[in-house]
Structure formats: C-alpha cells, structure tokens
Specification:
single chain; alpha+beta; Nucleoside Triphosphate Pyrophosphohydrolase; 2 domains; seven-stranded mixed β-sheet; three-stranded antiparallel β-sheet; 10 strands; elongated
C-alpha cells in the first residue's frame, strides 16, 4: 500500500480560535469577541481567529489572532491554554477547517479597542461558525479546573484577591453563590494561599478589615 502523494491530498485547513476571558469583581466574568471584516458572516461578532501559517507555532497563532482581531497584546495575556480541537465538515461554509481553540485569560483592565466584552451568563451569544460551542467548552474548562490549575486560577483572581472575589468567580461559573463557610475553609486550608488583612478603607468605618489572600510562590 502506498500513500497518496501530498499534492493530491485534500487537506483541511488549520484555524486558531481564541476565547479571551477576563474577571474582576466589578465586571464579573466576561468573554470578548470581535466584529468580522470579511465574509462569511461579515459584520457579525465572532471569536478572534486566524488560519495557521505554515511555519507558525500554535501559541504564536493564538497571540496573532488576539493582536490582529482585537488589539489585545501578548503582554496583556496572563494565561494561555489549549481548549481542544473542533472539527466537522459544516463548521466553516468556505471549506473544511479544523479549529485548535485556546483560552486566553486577559488582564481585566485591558480594552483591546476592537474587542467587544460581554458577560458569561451560561447562555449562547449567537456567534457564527461553532464559536458558541467553543466558548462553552472554554468556560467548562475554567469551571472544572479552577483551584486545581494554579496558573489559571491565579491569572483570573490576580496575585492578591479578597474572599469576595473568589465568591464572585464561583457564582459566575456555577450560577449560584458558594457556601460562605465552605469557601473560607477551602481558602484557609489551601497550602498555596496565605491570608493577609486588607488596609482599612477610607470610609472611616470601624470593624475588622476584609480578608485578602496572596499566593505563596
């Protein structure tokens, strides 16, 4: 048996699609899209994506998609991880393409200019291609890997965070507030966290300062 010559093969394209997310207590958990400039679906919001160049690494393609489609620079990306591969002959109306999807945790204060940020609320966003499926997979990855994946968790919550931020992130991912006692116990017994006291606020109110947490490494 001989292989089919490379020139005769009908090879699918390799696309890189990125799910940019950010989190803050003020804005909650958000995902970014960008308006498509060309057909198909010109004018529609979609995940930032590019076709992989022949000599390009996957992560480099993900950063290029963020930079060229949303204006988000690599320096604003706190964490980048693969979500998975998405295939199917009908996912792209132009021709067969396999998408390698990435999750990018972006610093919450960053506004990429062309990025359109929207809350993650558990529902679809009406995105073209199979981008709603990719977003769901990325959010599910965050939900299942939170706290077990330290770089991911730290990228979302920051180097120092209050208990209220951990509670807000749990609520955004699970659709309901965590049990306060269980959350505090989980934070207190986490060997990678150290409790500190936030400085007093400028409101002049008395009482104990809110607990904040920092990572040990």
């Amino acid at each position: 048996m001989t292989d089919t010559p490379t020139a005769a093969r009908d090879q699918p394209l390799i696309a890189i699609d990125v799910v940019p997310v950010s989190f803050s207590t003020a804005e909650g958990l958000r995902v970014a899209t960008a308006r498509r400039a060309y057909d198909p679906y010109a004018g529609r919001e979609a995940l930032p994506g590019v076709l992989l160049d022949a000599a390009e690494r996957l992560a480099d393609g993900a950063h290029r998609a963020l930079r060229t489609k949303t204006g988000i620079a690599a320096s604003a990306v706190r964490h980048l991880a693969q979500v998975g591969a998405f295939d199917g002959p009908s996912r792209d109306p132009r021709e067969t393409a396999i998408s390698i999807a990435f999750l990018a945790v972006v610093a919450p204060a960053v506004d990429g200019g062309r990025a359109v940020w929207r809350p993650v609320d558990g529902g679809d966003h009406g995105l073209p291609f199979d981008h709603d499926t990719i977003v769901r997979a990325a959010v599910d990855q965050v939900r299942t890997r939170l706290w077990r994946d330290v770089p991911l968790t730290r990228a979302l919550l920051g180097d120092v965070f209050p208990t209220s931020a951990a509670a807000a992130l749990h609520t955004a991912l699970h659709g309901g507030a965590p049990d306060a006692g269980n959350l505090n116990r989980a934070l207190r017994t986490n060997p990678l966290l150290v409790r500190t006291d936030a400085p007093p606020t400028s409101t002049g109110r008395g009482g104990r300062p809110p607990a904040t947490w920092t990572w040990t490494d």
